[in-house]
Each structure stands twice: as structure tokens, then as C-alpha cells.
Amino acid sequence: MTDSKRIVLSSDHAAIELRQAVSAHVASLGWEVEDIGPATPESTHYPKHGEAAARRVASGEFPLGIVLCGTGQGIMMAANKVKGIRCGVCSDTFSAKMIRAHNNANMLSIGARVVGEGLALEIVEAFLSTEFEGGRHGTRVEMISEIEG
Ligand code: RB5
Fold it and tell me: Which of 31, 70, 93, 101 gives 126 a disulfide partner, CB atoms 3.0 to 4.6 angstroms apart?
């Protein structure tokens, strides 16, 4: 498991309800959750919310983060623009485990218009309960970092 069970969450307007459900579930698993919103359902712009959560992870304040939007794609793209962030969109539990085990993902993205709440919570649990395997995968993750410069 990561050094500390602290996690930051954000979303756009399309995923507020799912984000709140994820937030409550992750807290029930013993994680300290910082949900940075948005709190109200007005239309907003996913890049700023993806960036906001990603910067909190990239700074080292949180070892992991979860972002959500309608598809999970746009907010993932924004998060991945922050140096040091490895964020993957997952719609299945196998991928959620593998982005931790092989890619050392430090952020998970979920599409609220793609998966239902029950599956989303299982995806989150798979992500949180899987360790990075290191070894040859470490070499490959370092190669990703080298691309960032
Ligand atoms: C908002 O309508 C939608 O475009 C957004 O939530 C997300 O799906 C973008 O990738």
C-alpha cells in the first residue's frame, strides 16, 4: 500500500453524484479523503478540476487521486498534463488493478456516464488495494518519466 492512506478527489458537473459516492466509500475503507469538488451542479470545465487534483498528487501532498467526468477521458487527459502524473481511465476492475501493478498509476479516472455506481466502487477498490510490482515495470515507468523531460 502507499505510504499514507490519503487521497484527493475531483470531478466536473457530469460526475458529482458518483464522486460523492466514491468519496464516501473510500472514506469507509479508512482513507482520509479530500474532496475538492465542485460542490454544486452548474456546468463547469473538466480541465481545471483534473489539473487541480493532479497538482495535489504531483506535489506529494497525496499519494493517490481519483478524478471523474462524463467519460473519464477529458479529465484524465488534463491530469496527465501535470508532470509526474500517471492517470488511467478504467471501466473494469482488471484494468484498475493493472494500472497500479504495472504502470504505477497515481491517479484513476472514471466515467460517470459509462459505469454505474456499483461497478465504479469495485473499480476504486481494485485500484486502492493493488501494489506496484516494480522490477521490469519500474524500468518502463521510468521511461514514461523520461518522455516528460
Ligand atoms: C461534459 O459534458 C463532458 O464533456 C465531460 O464530462 C467529459 O465527458 C469530457 O471528457
Answer: 93
At 149, the pLDDT band (50, 70, 90 cuts) reads confident
**Neighbour tally for 1: CB within 10 Å:** 10
Range of the domain at 76: 6-148
Which residues in the chain belong to E strands, given as ranges?
6-11, 32-35, 64-69, 87-89, 107-111
Considering 25, 49, 69, 90, which one is annotated as catalytic? Answer: 69
Active-site hit among 25, 49, 90, 102? 102
* CATH number, position 117: 3.40.1400.10
What is the mean pLDDT of the segment spanning 4-19?
98
**Cα(71) to centroid of ligand 1, in Å?**
6
Mind listing the pLDDT tens digit for each residue in 85-99?
999 999 999 999 999
> Is ligand 1 within 6 A of the CB of residue 47?
no
